[in-house]
Specification:
single chain, 131 residues, mainly alpha
Length: 131
């Protein structure tokens, strides 16, 4: 990107984590969503890639030569549980995003990269319900 922008140009980048944490510790170390994050991060490493890019983006952009890099982190609730009306709406949309994408993400990575059977993936998916 750096080579394609004129001086003074800018771009925006959005990255999301594969982990779904909680503010109130309802997603603890033994929770299925914690195991989901562990498994997907391991799959990325096995591919020689990373699913932790959201943690590394700002440093990488600076290393590429960009100046005045501004990193903003936002809460992305999953579901309409938030009290704040804006976060509640974001949570509804993010829940839909996760529910519609979860099967494709899981089947591709877990069967092709991690060697799971489709039956094993189909056992995991209902446990990852986000409601």
């Amino acid at each position: 990107m750096y080579g394609h922008l004129k001086p003074g140009g800018w771009y925006e980048q959005v990255e999301m984590a594969v982990r779904i944490p909680s503010d109130d510790d309802t997603v603890g170390p033994d929770h299925v969503l914690t195991k989901w994050g562990d498994t997907f991060e391991a799959a990325g490493e096995k591919l020689g890639k990373t699913f932790k890019i959201w943690e590394q983006s700002a440093a990488g952009v600076k290393k590429a030569g960009f100046q005045n890099v501004k990193e903003e982190k936002f809460k992305m609730p999953v579901g309409p549980w938030a009290r704040d009306p804006k976060l509640k709406e974001i949570g509804r949309w993010n829940q839909l995003h996760c529910e519609e994408g979860i099967e494709g993400w899981a089947v591709a990575l877990l069967t092709r990269v991690m060697g799971w059977t489709l039956e094993e993936v189909n056992v995991l998916l209902p446990r990852c319900e986000l409601r």
